[in-house]
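Take a protein:
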Amino acid sequence: MTPALEAIEDCSCNITAFLFEGLTDNVDLHSPLFVIFLLSYLIIIAGNGAILLVILLDSHLHSPMYTFLTNLAVIDIIAASNILPKLLLMLLTQYSRISFSHCIAQMYIFASLVCTEVILLASMAYDRYVAICHPLHYIRLMTMKQCASLSFLSWTIGFLDTIGHAVLVSKMSFSLSHPVDHFFCDFSPLLNISCSDTFQVELLSYVEGASLGFLTFMLVVVSYVFIICTIVNIKSTEGQVKAFSTCSSHLICVVVFYGTVMCLHMKPTSDYSSKQDKYFALLYVVFVPILNPFIYSLKNKEVKKAFVKLWKLV
């Protein structure tokens, strides 16, 4: 049989399951990795859950900024729960099989949450711009109704934007003999084992990703240009520090988020590197959800006061 015929027979559009390569072939590392990721998952749930609980119970935190923060906490919890339980099962049992439908759903949820977070971070940048550059008009420009609308819009656009990608990928043919060289179903590793022409889905990904990413990134950049100009013009050093402290947490999260996502997704499939992508994916799936609650709680006096108040009640 010729190589061409073997390649054709190796491909199937009716594939029922995928196998993961996982993080490492070294079985001896599976147990310590299981402990590390289990602890990480528990910290993510506990940290973001605590943020949600504190904001919901403390009426002083019922403001637009903290409403956006609750949305970020929900995203972190869902993103971790979408991937880490399956990874923990793989490390514990060596069972690396995932059904086709579960794989597509995992990819869709992951991509949708990334898009949602991109829009939410841009909305938070606008919120900080209004708070610092137009403080006297903040109550009028950023009402809770407007904040709820921006949050709803973020989730709606995020989950609608990636439907096309999921549909196109689900109709592709995949190699039966090649496992997914990753620890979860992501866009690039799936295209890497596809026997179909990936041009259409890659083009859709670049056009939608670049347009959404560019627009939201520019909104963040423009907002911070105005914010920095306003802070520089504040006469007192104390006023400058106070103004900057209100947006420093958000700025740190923006830098970490955009850095990991750009390294993970803003490159052609031909440049796909499984080892590199796994590292950046771990940063987004594990490191960022752990980091966010600590950034927003440790650098925010109101949140720390709310934590102390809740702790006394317990």
